[in-house]
Amino acid sequence: MARQVFFPHPNNKPSGFSTATRVGNMVFVSGQVAADENGNLVGKGDARAQADQCFRNVQAALEAAGATLDDLTKITCFLVKLEDYPAYAAARLAVFPENGPASSTVMNTHLVSPDYLVEVEAIAVVE
């Protein structure tokens, strides 16, 4: 099967990797941080605002690949601070109030920038 790559914000494409990759009915979304469509940080110092932006970015990546949040089967969150887990969990619950995807949270000492507190990656299966 051919691998397709997708970039929801063509004017702000990452180098060396794709935002989303689709193979058949599976979509893999690279880790999304709290950057808007222009690459600007959203929610400096605010884990909830950052988590909300991460989920908006995951949604945009899924849509670019022909999927939706309802197609998500697995999300993985990377957090810098354990005390930010409740803020992340509240953002996740706002997106998935019922029957959310499988989810893991990993504590990390650093993300790609010291301003990022949250990163979310995802896997979806499209029917």
What does this structure look like?
The structure is a single chain. This protein is α+β, with helices and mostly antiparallel strands and 127 residues long. It has a single domain, classed as 60s Ribosomal Protein L30, Chain: A. Helices cover 23% and strands 29% of the residues. The protein has a six-stranded mixed β-sheet with strand order 1-2-3-6-4-5, covered by helices on one side. Strand 4, helix 2 (85-95) and strand 5 (102-107) form a beta-alpha-beta unit. The longest helix has 18 residues, at 47-64. The radius of gyration is 14 Å and the shape is globular. The protein starts with a strand and ends with a strand. The relative contact order is 0.24.
> Which bin fits the share of residues in helices?
10-25%
Low-pLDDT regions: none
Major sheet details: 6 strands, mixed
**Helical segment count:** 2
How many β strands by DSSP?
A: 6
Provide the spatial order of strands within the biggest beta sheet. 1-2-3-6-4-5
SSE ordering: EEEHEHEE
Summarize the structure.
With 127 residues, the chain is α+β, with helices and mostly antiparallel strands. Helix content is 23%, strand content 29%.
Features:
globular, six-stranded mixed sheet, alpha+beta
Topology (SSEs and partners):
Elements: E1 3-6, E2 20-23, E3 26-32, H1 47-64, E4 72-79, H2 85-95, E5 102-107, E6 118-125
Parallel strand pairs: 4-5
Antiparallel strand pairs: 1-2, 2-3, 3-6, 4-6
Helix pairs in contact: 1-2
